[in-house]
Amino acid sequence: MVKVGLIGIGKMGISHLAILGAHPDVKVVGVCDTSKMLVDALEKYSAFPCYTDYKKMLDAERPDAVFVAVPTRFHAAIVNDLLDRNIHVFSEKPFCLNLAEGEPLVAKAKAKGVVNQVGYHNKFLGTFNEVKKLLEGGWIGDIYHFHGQAYGPVVVKPKQDTWRSDPAEGGGCLMDYASHVIDLINYLLAPITAVKGSMLKSVYSRNVDDAVFALLELSNKVTGMLSVNWSDQTYRKMSTSVTISGTSGKIISDANELKVYFNQAKCPEGYSRGWNVKYLTDLTPGVDFYLRGEEYSAQIDHFIKAVQGKVPNSINTFESALQTDKAIQLIRNGQQ
Q1: 262 near 248, Cβ under 8 Å?
Q2: Which residues of the chain are under the pLDDT cut of 50?
Q3: What pLDDT score was predicted for residue 245?
Q4: What is the pLDDT of residue 125?
């Protein structure tokens, strides 16, 4: 049984807590939040030991692993404390506010040999993993263009400021929303190493960007576009997709559906020349506890198995998340 602590019970923290609380290999030994109102409510309606000071929780409960689900500006200090105590760490995304914060943590996690993971859940979706297999097999030929997109109705009117509207705390569409698409491009195609131009637009927010548009170049010199808008009311919830064009075909995939076109008779098993459609339900293994989508439970299952030594710590490591932070910085620097 892995003893797990949780710091932060906002939206993602509560989601993680629900999954961890039902996990057969996890004992939740402590939950911490600085909001006494939230802690009082959790103490009243659950059996979890609750704290308002995470250091007191660590001293008292001595967890094997801790989930960090606090605003991004607190990640570096808390993760550093956890690494100093040789505790395995799952941190919410984005990893850090900047490279100066993230690079020492990557080095320390390696030196300590602890399991480290960041919550980029798209890598646990069957559709995107099938895209990865098709690309690694070279089935659509030489890639010459891609388009990564995400749209959703997060900020659809001027509203009271929160940490998500403060750039100093990690708020804004680029950090909070586009980071998912950037991480997915890094994973599927190659790391983003140059930005030919970018625009960060405010639609309803006063201090942060609500939309991000950028022309990207990857380490393999393939170029493509990024288009992300969290003020798009035409979507009911976040919709992430990639379109990838190659000399032998084309892939269009989102979280739920994968469409592939092959222009040659030579195709992978289960596919044929022309358009093919596969669905998430055919491509994603089931999970023991379903909440919001299989990917949220699957990423936690993977982290716990890595702590137990059952799988390698190779998905969404601090190092790969730092690569996404680097691309975020490049996009900021590339504003026109």
Answers
A1: yes
A2: none
A3: 98
A4: 96
The answer to whether the beta carbons of residues 64 and 3 sit under 8 Å apart is yes
Strand partners, 148: 226, 242
Amino acid letter for position 130: E
Measured between alpha carbons, how far is 64 from 192 in angstroms, rounded to an integer?
34
pLDDT of residue 284: 83
Residues 6 or more apart from 126 whose CB is under 8 A from it? 280, 282, 283, 284, 285, 294
Evaluate the CA torsion angle 306, 309, 311, 317 in order and state its sign.
Answer: positive
CB burial of 20-46 (b: ≥16 within 10 Å; e: otherwise) equals bbebeebebbbbbbeeeebbeebeeee
Structure tokens at 255: 């979280």
